[in-house]
Specification:
It is a single chain. With 182 residues, this protein is α/β, with parallel strands linked by helices. It has one domain (3-179): Rossmann fold (3-Layer(aba) Sandwich), CATH 3.40.50.150. It has four helices and six strands. It has a six-stranded mixed sheet with strand order 2-1-3-4-6-5, covered by helices on one side. Strand 1, helix 3 and strand 2 (67-71) form a beta-alpha-beta unit.
């Protein structure tokens, strides 16, 4: 499967959805992007790929002197495309719950660092009543252990974790992984 197979799964993210995001959430997105850039600054990355860029806020609010390419399966998203053979960092902000990681496996060879945010269900909450339980939209639900085991198969080791986006977001965890020699 390639990126075209993903497009049909994301038909809900249409032009109306994106316009609503810009109109209602730009200030929140700016704040979250500042949090994310602070979270990843220890990687000293100069070239970044924001895969699953959505509205493009992460690129829009980037620090000066950092090159950010952006890609999304949604044709309505403002994106630059994947323009490099190598990146210091690839970001998967709010992506892995929507896709099979095998869809982006080819990209994981192109980077030293991987940063992501993902909902992680607290142990004391029932899956069916959990805020992030969204059948048809969230097709994977990771525990931290499963996420680490999955990324180890691609030669990545977790080097940082936290919940810097909470508040305002609930049950979202952020991670940085570093490529280890295979």
């Amino acid at each position: 499967m390639g990126d075209n197979s993903l497009k049909k799964d994301f038909e809900m993210y249409n032009l109306d959805y994106l316009e609503n995001m810009y109109r209602m959430y730009s200030k929140t997105a700016e704040n979250i992007c500042k949090i994310r850039w602070k979270f990843i600054e220890s990687t000293n990355s100069k070239t970044v790929l924001d895969y699953g860029c959505g509205c493009g806020f992460f690129r829009m609010y980037r620090p000066k002197k950092i090159i950010v390419d952006s890609y999304d399966v949604n044709d309505y998203c403002v994106q630059t495309g994947i323009n490099r053979n190598q990146y210091d960092l690839i970001c998967l902000w709010d992506v892995l719950e929507h896709i099979n990681i095998g869809e982006v496996g080819y990209l994981l060879d192109k980077t030293k660092y991987l940063a992501l945010s993902i909902p992680i269900k607290p142990d004391d909450i029932n899956m069916i009543t959990w805020k992030h339980y969204k059948p048809g939209e969230h097709i994977f639900h990771y525990t931290e252990k499963l996420l680490n085991e999955t990324l180890e198969k691609y030669n990545f080791k977790q080097i940082k974790k936290g919940q810097p986006e909470c508040p305002p977001r609930k049950d979202i965890r952020s991670f940085i992984y570093e490529k280890v020699n295979s």
